[in-house]
Amino acid sequence: MGSSLDLLTPTGWQDYELIDSGQGRKLERFGPVTLDRPETNALWSRRLPADRWREADARFEVGAEGGAGEWHFKRPVPDRWEMRYQPLGLRFYTACRPFRHTGVFPEQAAHWTWLVERLEAARARAKVLVLFGYTGLTTLALARGGAEVVHVDASRPAMAWARDNAAASNLADQPIRWLLDDAVAFVRRERRRGNHYDGIVMDPPAFGRGPKGEIWRFNSSLPLLLEACAEILDPDPVLVLVNAYAVPASATMLRNLVADLVPTRGTLTAGELALAGGQRTLATGIFARWSAV
Length: 293
Known about the structure:
By secondary structure, the chain is α/β, with parallel strands linked by helices. The chain is built from 7 helices and 17 strands. It folds into 2 domains: 197 residues, Vaccinia Virus protein VP39 (Rossmann fold, 3-Layer(aba) Sandwich), CATH 3.40.50; 79 residues, Golgi alpha-mannosidase II (Immunoglobulin-like). It has an 8-stranded mixed β-sheet with strand order 1-16-17-15-12-9-10-11, sandwiched between helices. Strands 2-3-4-5-6 form a 5-stranded mixed β-sheet, with no helix packed on it. Strands 7-8 form a two-stranded antiparallel sheet. A hairpin with a 2-residue loop joins strand 2 and strand 3. Helix 2 runs parallel beside helix 3 and helix 5 packs parallel to helix 6. The radius of gyration is 19 Å and the shape is globular.
């Protein structure tokens, strides 16, 4: 099985741009709206002058002692607005949400195109499980690639957002099951039912709670989840992707965990996701992914 460590940056964006970064923040354009958000990895100097940063439509300020924080708006911003990822024909909604989030991680587009390419190479409809599916953009990319998708997330608002995104992308009639559930509990039930998947995609958080108060802690919960996933992954799978943000982990650790899950053939890649812009490359997360071809 081939293996490497890579730096992935997305291509094809017209509605997103990393304008500048530095001094613990990043300046971004989401469609018509420019946002100034915290970024702990951006320790370098900024390229653009302070006046350019002050032109942002909204700025997120972290609360005292790392609290939740809040948005400060320089001019009115819609409650939500539509964005597009043209290469896959995806349309979805973006918003200024609590904890600095916008409902989209633009660097993930590097995975979306890879997923579609792997599905097309498989030449047969694959059944793919998406865990911690959030606002559904990875799910929609899989559906666009022809997969039958089971989308699992523990947040009711995120689930509603994901379904709105499916409608915006004209994918609401595709074979997608939307399930509000705890990821570990769901996989264990699927194991007992004897169900199998051709692919598994997940984006686990550092910490989280399931709909019934189930506790998720990345370092202790992820190995248990992957152990359960090994029993529901088809013996001849198509793809596996594990992505992570703001966790006490390395890409090498993810690669080793995924290597224990997948067959010894195929191609296993791990590394960092990043955004390029403002004459800088900003690493944002880590990943490990495997494909049969």
